[in-house]
Amino acid sequence: MPKSREYFHLTGKFYICSAPRQVTRYSPPVLPHVVSQNNADDQAAQRQVSNQFWESKRLEQWRKLPAKARASYTWPQAGSTPKGPPSSFQCLAMEDMTATSTSNAGNRDSVMSQDSNPMSSPSSPSSVSSFRSRWNLTGSNNSNINNAGGDVSTPTSPISSTNGASKIRNDNPAKILHDIAFDNFCLLVFKPLDIVHFESSPLPPKRTIYTTDAAGQWAVSEANP
C-alpha cells in the first residue's frame, strides 16, 4: 500500500470448488467451525456439510456474474491453440437459469450419488458440441442450435407452465448449454495460514506476524522489523 507504506505477505493454500459432477484431485476446504471427529462417519458428515456450503457459494457467485461473463464459460479453453472457429464464440450473453435447480444446488454429495458416471455429462467447453448428438440436434432438420457453442434458438418456448407456475424446460437446448457453462464455473478459494504485516512509516518499522493452527485459531506476535 504505497500511501500507508505498509504491505501484507500472505501464505496459504488454494482450493478449487468445482461442480459436483466434476471429478478433481482436490476437494473444497473443510469449514473450520465443523468439529472434526475420529469416527469415519463423522468425518464423512463433516465433509458433506462443507461441500454443501461451498456449492451454495458457487451458485451464489454464478448468479452474480454478468450475462456476458457467463457466456464466456461456453467458449474453448483460454490460451489453447489453435484458436477455435468464430462459431465457438457466438454465445455472447447468457441469463441465469438455475432458479429451478436449487434443490440440489447446495448438495454436492447427493448430486454425485445420483450420477453413476459423472464424466458422462458434458462438462468442458470443448464438449459443448457433443450435446448435439446426445439430444438429437444434428442434421439439416434441426433448428435448435445454430452452431456448437453458438446462439441458441428454440422453436418452442423454453418456459413451460404447470398449475400456473413457470418452470424452465429441462429439454430446452438453451438450458443444456447453460448447465454446461455452469459446470465449467469453479470457485478459487484462498485459505491464509500465515500473514506478515509490515509497516515502514514508523521508526523503527513494525512487523506483526499472524499464524493459525489446525483448529483455525489465530495467534499474533511482534517480530523484529
TrEMBL record:
Sequence ranges of Polar residues compositional bias: 99-112, 153-165
Low complexity biased stretches: 113-133
Organism, as annotated: Linnemannia gamsii
Region (Disordered): 99-166
Domain of life: Eukaryota
Signal peptide: none
InterPro entries, A to Z: Split_barrel_FMN-bd
Record protein name field: Uncharacterized protein
